[in-house]
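Thread: quick sanity check before group meeting

JM: Hey all, I'm pulling together slides for Thursday and realized we never actually wrote out the predicted structure for the chain we discussed last week. Dropping the sequence here so it's in one place. If anyone has concerns about the input, flag it before I start.
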Amino acid sequence: MISQNTRRAPRALSLIFAAAVMFAVACPSWAAVPERLSVTFVPSPLNVPTIVETGLGMFQAAFPGTEIRLPEINAGPKQTEAMAAGEVDIAHCVGATSAILAASEGLDIRIIGIYSRAPRAFMIFARDGGIKTAADLKGKKIGGPKGTILHQLLAAYASSANLKETDYEFINMGIPAAAAALSNGSVDAALLAGADAYRAMEGGFSVVTDGVGLVDATTVIAATQKYLDNNADTVKRFLEMHAGALEYMGKNRGDTVRLTAEAVKLSAAAVEAMYGWYDFSTEISSSDVEELKRTQEFMLENKLQRNRIDVESIIAR
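JM (edit): ok, ran it. Output follows.
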């Protein structure tokens, strides 16, 4: 059974067949499938694996007979709230900031893999040439989402010039709103990512900095410890499906770009230009762990997190 929230697969039956064959091998018939599986659907800013998995019907191929629910929840805190309420089984692409904050507030969340690292995809844009360095942020109005990777980027960049948040006016707003504010002159600078960042570049706004050397812009795949304990086979099958999507992406670059372009409503050329900004490998490396620790320090220093946690304790082993 497929719920109304499930994203429709394309009409190309050959692609669906290919996905089905892939998972008939990856997921043996003797392994039981759950009656229901709820996984967050987050296609933006350019989350290619999610687009491939839904666009090629990989969930249905990997979990035949399972009721698949794919609620579109872009905000990290909303994802972790849904997990806490039992409405979401697996958070597929949640910001490391949200995962750490949820853990610090008592949710038994566990990181089961990295979704992406994309320092080049997260940027600070200026409306004119008046902001060229971190020091130039002083006294400026800057729009962007609070408590996110972009906020972390701003804090890291500003601190390189010994600026604190009191030295500039940070206005909390979502990415689309920040892009609009930059365009209409309501802010001097905006924190943008993915497709919105690409559009700002095409619109002639100048890139002050991206995340390279400042933040890894890590997003993760997560589930609660309770869910992992009770659904180990389901999680294993899900991760195998995700690995299959990455394999497909590696072998079918052109089809992947076209599928993604259709999903995010950009040209294939735009997607191709942005594709290289992302590292989608799932293995959790020692450098990933260090970045998670730096993320916690950012949260604590900016009073976004009340309780310190042992970051390594929330990584599933």
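AS: nice. The longest strand covers residues 109-117. The chain has two domains: 13-118+217-314, 120-210.
JM: adding both to the slides.
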